[in-house]
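Sample entry was shown:

___
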Amino acid sequence: MNEWLHSLPVWQMALVVFAITYMVAGGILVIVMALAKGEWSRVFKQVSVGLLSPLGIIFGLMVVFSVGEVWSNIDRAKLAVDREASAIRMVELLAATFPGEPEAQIRNLIRRHIDEAVSAEWPTMAKQSASLRVAAPALSEALQLALSLAPKNEGQTVAQREIIAGLETAMDARRQRISLSRSSVNWVKWTCLFVQAGCTMVAIAVVHCDNRAAGAIAIAIFATGAAVSVLLIASHDRPFSGEISVKPDVLLQVRPE
């Protein structure tokens, strides 16, 4: 279910989230109005309307913390991909200081790494199944090749050192993006958010138990805000999953022809 929801386009995800939220809100309203009779009605009327304010504030704070977390993960994922692409581009440029076979080999290995990242790693990162146990074979071969180069002048010596540093940076950035691909809002946070939203809707229905129309309007307004909040978090929950995700476009831009 979780994988299915995250794979949906944003508009379809919105339909699912809003439909479920309105169904829950409607169910709560119907149940509370059905119970608001006799003794229960007198009990409900004793609930202070002042309860709604702290419940709403707590829900808002939980949304802020969750949104901050997912946006931070996406920013870090973008930074990791940009860092990897920048390091690869530098290696490609410096490879020209070793013309002939070494340059061609380095360019071929860079091309292979990018192709493998796009075709193999990105789909597994989207499913949160990418593993750090599998090293980047093309980058590892490129690093071994760079270490085996025999510089003939001071310029090549400096270039070799920078190529090695660039490859190490690219490998570190790759490890970071794979690690970030496993990040998401955990089930405890989701559960607390849903429970808090449910408590707030119950309180709204109880406070307006003597006026069905006012209760329906109030709970519909809150349900809309809650659905928007859940949609915002869910659509950004996984940095490399869904329609709003980090794409390998930057890597493709530095792919050698």
The radius of gyration is 27 Å. The mean pLDDT is 91. Residues 1-46+187-236 form one domain. The first helix runs from residue 2 to 6.
